[in-house]
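Much of our argument rests on the idea that a fold can be written as discrete symbols. Part of our work consisted of pairing the sequence of a single chain with a tokenised description of its backbone. We regard such an encoding as a compact summary of how the chain folds. The amino acid sequence and the backbone structure tokens for this protein are reproduced below.
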Amino acid sequence: MGLLTDWLTRSPAMLAIKTAQQPDPAPTMPPPASSIPDDTITWTTTSLDWTADAYGTYCREYAVRIVVDFITRNIASLPFKVYEKDDAGDPREVHDGALADLMARPSRVAGMSRYRFIAALLRDMLIDDRWLCRLTYEDRSGRFELRRIPPDKWAMHVNGLGEPVSVRIGDTTGMRVTVRLPDPSVVMDVGYLDELGQCSPIVDVLRPLLAEARAMEDYRKKLASNGAQVPAYVYRPKEMPWETQEDYDAFTQSLRAYSKGGGSEGMWPTLKDGMEIRTLDNLFKPVDMNDLEARDRISIAVANAFQISPENLGLREGTNSNIAAYKEKLWNVELMPYLVALEEALNLTLPDAVGEPDHYIKANIDAKLRGTMSEQYQALSTATGRPFMTTNQARRILDMPAIDGGDELITPLNVLAGGQPSPQDGGRTQNAQQGT
């Protein structure tokens, strides 16, 4: 009866999801080329060898970290809403339903908010050029749930044309599940694939540049630690020789007290008669390497690799005249491909899988382009040609209580249909038309 009840009460997509959750006792799962086995990671290590792994590059490389975090923070902070088309073809926001409930809280993992979940998927795509989630249905709660699979816990199998035909997924128990594609329980996005089914993330292209940056960093460290710390020396005329060797040793030992840990650091030594402090103007110093500029240039190269303007990251200074243009370019040109890829990957599977094929997911990008509060209010007032907010609505923004009669929209007497074009006009246009 259990199987018959499933067939009668559940959709084919839901049955496929339940079937795909059955484990496959496969003995091994070949890891992707960009991953490393679990037993080789030592979380207390300080070696930079981990940068050979894609996520190791994210954890250890400053330039990669700031660019990836910038993209994930901006996109994950967008409101992801669910819409459906009405009979007239106009979009209508949906607040109830399986898909809206799923996007409100995709994961039930402790501490995994919607923002953190979307950010994790974007991070996987930026670093490994792929991400994958499992869609599950909980009988007890009666809701769908997404579970992110780390890139090193799943592998793709491709056909002769390089098209993915199945995925092998590991779980916390060590079991392996093989899922044939397409499958409603698998929500995934994959970038460029070679004939072996391996992705080519951007960090692989950046590794030679980052290796050069690490070599320069090591050189700067050695130069700073082994080079002369003070570009000066103590001069003593040859006509004033040391009286004894003990006198010379005592003076030398006294100078060490003014170095770090000597007890007199920051003070100035007492020199004997005839001694002078002379500087070395031609001494090679770490600042002569212009290392700060070299570091910025590497960060700029990484930002360009991810198609993000360095000005938006603060790597290059912008001006008051072009900062607004860079912000508009950020959302309309630079971040839009990442956002479209995420939306299409979610809409490709989720609406049909949850039984709402007429719904779709769309990020509200207007929330980032609205400008300041004063700019929004002025634009809305100009577009509507009249006040657009009641008194109580305005008081609610300021956390003030409502007042009697505050729910009515008040229109000034000089704002009429066909008269003054905007409340900000002040009657100037109407007076000009009347010749006053």
Q: What stands out?
A: Residues 202-226 form the longest helix (25 residues). The radius of gyration is 33 Å. Residues 1-9, 23-52 have pLDDT under 50 and may be disordered.
